[in-house]
Fold this sequence. Notes:
It contains one helix and 17 strands. The protein has 285 residues and is of the alpha+beta class. The strands form four sheets. Strands 13, 14, 15, 16 and 17 form a five-stranded antiparallel beta sheet that branches.
Amino acid sequence: MGSDQSVHRLIRFDGDRMWDFFSDGRNNICYRTLEGNMGWMGPHLVSENAKNEFGVCVDEHGGLHFIYLSLEGGITYMHYDDKGWSEQKLSEYNVKEYDIRYPAVIALDNRIHIIFAVGDPWEAEIWSLYHYCWDGKLWVHQRISEFIDDWESAPYSYRIYDNSIHLSYREVSGSISKVLHVKYHTDLQKWLALPNNPYAGADIGDNFSPEPSIYEDALEWINKAQAVYRDHLSIARETDELHRRSMETKRRWELILEELDDFKIKIRKMQNKGPLKRLFGSMLH
């Protein structure tokens, strides 16, 4: 996907609502709505003076999330609900020093994730992947990884598995391409490296494009490994629970034995006092 190509993103809400986001070729990003038998209506302007690369998604509550890049060097996040649009600028950068490409926005687990690639205009092959996360109070950002890529198509793709973001990206060395994998752990709030793809090292060729099966094979292996670890974790937790119950039972028996020992001591004291009571009783009578 070159920077001068037209980009369309179809978004479907709950029900029959469908919106088409697109660049109009004049540095504007618009959307149009599909109105039943009336066809496509609009367009409506979303942002102007913008690059044609943008990201858009819908969350589980029906809210729409949008990210775009301005020509002046700004990364802007927008949110749409039934009341209208809200806008927030995430960052500003010098377009002479940085090239920002391939923005994506992901709504997951009540958090907003934004991923994009940062390059050097003078070193076109060197890129870094960056991640912004909105936790409801503030944006937290971090660099995911640095890599080398000389293609015009998007150098990364992502999928959602088990409430985590799995991201795959290319690294090019000569005519050899590697597909690398990382996972964003929502609980740890950090990116974790995953095993490399078994197809790493394939010859790029002029028309090479990583097939979805490349990612699917690796992710299938990851899912199986996660299932095994979950089984072991479940067994370990059950063992811990049995151990805890055993310790509670042991402690109850220890308390019972301590009470019995105390009771034995009281009985012995009563036995020792018995003859004296009889002696004093006989003297008084």
